[in-house]
Amino acid sequence: MINSNSVKEDIRSALETLLGPEVRTIGVDQSFRDFIGERFDSLMAVEVVTTIEERFGIEVDYVGDDVRYWFETLEKMEQFVKERLEDNVTLQAM
Amino acid sequence: MNALSQIAPRFPAGNAVVSGQPDLWCTYAAIRSLAWVDQLQSVDRPQICRYIESRLNRDGGYAWSKGMPSDAWATFYCTETLNDLGAQERGTQKTESWLDSLWDGHAYAMCAGQGADVWATHYAVRTLINVCHGEVKEPAELLDWLSGLQCESGGLSWSPAFARRNKADVRACFYGVMAWKALSQQGAWVPTWDMDRLVQWMQAQQLECGGFRFSEAADTPCLWATYRTTATLAALGTSPLHSARCVAWIDSLRGPGGGFVRWQGYDCEDVWAVFCAVGSLKALGQDVSGLAQGVSQFIQRLYVDNGGYTYREKSAAADVLTTAATVLGGTLAPQDRDSAVRWIEGCQLPNEAGVMYMPGRGAEVRCTAWALAAGALRDAVQGRQAVLAWLGRIQNPDGGFGFWEGRGSDMVSTASAVSIMAMLGSNNGVDCAQLEHFIRRCAITQEPPTYGNFPDGTPTLRSSIQALKCLRYLGHGYGDAMQALLLRHKVKQGGFANIGNRIPDLLSTYEAMAASSAFDLEVDRAHVLYFLEKVETASGYAWSPMYREGQDALSTCLGSLLRQWFQGRLDVLPHLYLS
């Protein structure tokens, strides 16, 4: 079982390095796009995805995964990461 | 008389497609014109500032469109417009550092890694000194480069290499002189130009009617040439030989809508003509307050609600790329398609026989390729010959082609020029040996062969595809290299990525398929079709599966062409390049 609090905290910690300390104040269901404002462009979206990939050792499928949806809020990111980590555990057990 | 003089200055006939989007150049020209006639109080400053600031990249430069790389021209227009609007210029330190990256050792380029030209040097130096309050780091080097712009005729050219070919142009005179004037703010730097001969050459470009032409190679006077000349002469403390005649000629170009037209007999008032007319009249020492109300009312009609301006009333402000893309997409009824092609053909206007992105602007290599691909000039022998002659005339001394006349070479424009030659079935007048030399200079690595958009650029899939296709046109093989290149950028889930192999986009995928088709390479249909499904929307195709709202006529065109090709309804994918 993946620890929910740990994943959430790890996401905040990883994104703090990229986006700055204000990430600590964003609500779990608040849109990153709205929170970051004009600075949040497609390049930054890719950097957010890459940061999460590196932190958790997962791979995002830019074609099949709805990146815009799953990386919109901390809550959705957490769900996405947890599912991927559980998939990895299952795959390793096979 | 040359072939170009046969082209009458008339707004294109036929029905074209309007993108409905504002344009950066138009926005700059609109705001500057309103500032000149003291009418800025009527504009929506916060909205326009938001539109301009949305072009700011994180490197400190500004781009023509959101998501595109920064360039010196867009940066000048954006920062000048923000200044005109009294907006607090943010992050000029970053902008200054970015401008430093454009230095090529002698002068400034539009983008980092590109060769310098006088357009870019003017924009970069003025932004650096007047907006960023910075300094040119190597003023002596720049002065040498500027000094080298003078031609045997006395006028200035686009670069020292062009000057050795004695190709002067009043636009180059403007940009060279204004770059020097900005540089002189940081010290007593004076180029070694023969000022008397420079002034005499510019004054000699005034024709009997009172208006000016670009150079001896152009025989139709226009407001663009007139503004560049009168403003340059004023900056040098002098004036045209026949100022009163020039003022009367400008007045004769005033239209009923409060604006101006670029050429005598032209039937469309536009924002650039207004900018050039008002600027010229000011340079000639005229009082422009009487124009204020008419100009202000005219410009108000060009406003696009999301914050910028276009070139004429927004409901009729069509452009060639959007129209050509709609024609190529294959959704128009035959009658509408013919009408749209006729409109595109009308964007071949006096003095520059290439096709203009918007009528009244300047002829662009890339747009001309799109226009021909859409079927323009298919039966117009004289028009096709004029395009080829224009192409030969604007080829840069380094062998490549730039965005338009005098601009530094880049791979997108060079590949577009090759595409034009292929469609015209001739390369007469183009130096193919020099062309190949430029393409090979853009090689970033030899093994595997990768290419950048400029000689010191970053290697990408699209630049490499474009280079290999050009080399193939020039008689070289490279089928294995193309296959290996596509494999390196193939995204395993579907589509192709411009950099690396993780993030696919429609433009790269289209170019990969067009290259596969041209080189007769095997295609993984399921792989590309899966990607195509992911970018297909209810009303067209998006540029990226990550942002399906991001679609326009061009992305829909490329997606539709791919779909038709896979369905066997299209034998060959047109060679279309954007970036």
Summed up:
The complex is a heterodimer of chains A (94) and B (579). Chain A contains five helices and no strands. Chain A is mostly helical.
Write the layout of secondary structure elements.
The complex is a heterodimer of chains A (94) and B (579).
Chain A: H1 4-19, H2 32-36, H3 42-56, H4 67-70, H5 74-93
Helix pairs in contact in A: 1-3, 1-5
Chain B: H1 24-36, H2 45-53, H3 72-84, H4 92-100, H5 118-131, H6 139-147, H7 160-163, H8 170-183, H9 195-203, H10 223-235, H11 243-252, H12 271-283, H13 292-300, E1 303-304, E2 308-309, H14 320-329, H15 334-345, H16 365-373, H17 381-394, H18 411-424, H19 432-441, E3 443-445, E4 450-451, H20 461-473, H21 479-488, H22 506-518, H23 525-535, E5 542-544, E6 547-551, H24 553-566
Antiparallel strand pairs in B: 1-2, 3-4, 5-6
Helix pairs in contact in B: 1-3, 1-12, 3-5, 4-5, 5-8, 8-10, 10-12, 14-15, 14-16, 14-24, 16-18, 17-18, 18-20, 20-21, 20-22, 22-24, 23-24
Description:
The complex is a heterodimer of chains A (94) and B (579). Chain A is mainly alpha-helical and 94 residues long. Chain A has a single domain (4-93), classed as Orthogonal Bundle (Non-ribosomal Peptide Synthetase Peptidyl Carrier Protein, Chain A). Chain A has helices at residues 4-19, 32-36, 42-56, 67-70, 74-93. In chain B, the strands form three sheets. A two-stranded antiparallel ribbon of chain B has the order 1-2. In chain B, a hairpin with a 2-residue loop joins strand 5 and strand 6 (547-551). Chain B is globular. Residues 1-5 of chain B have low confidence and may be disordered. Chain A binds chain B through residues 38-39, 41-43, 45-46, 61-64, 67-68, and chain B through 53-54, 58, 66-67, 491, 493-495, 502-504, 530-531, 534, 544-548. Chain B: Residues 21-66, 173-313, 324-443, 466-545 form the Prenyltransferase alpha-alpha toroid domain. Chain B: Keywords: Metal-binding, Prenyltransferase, Repeat, Transferase, Zinc.
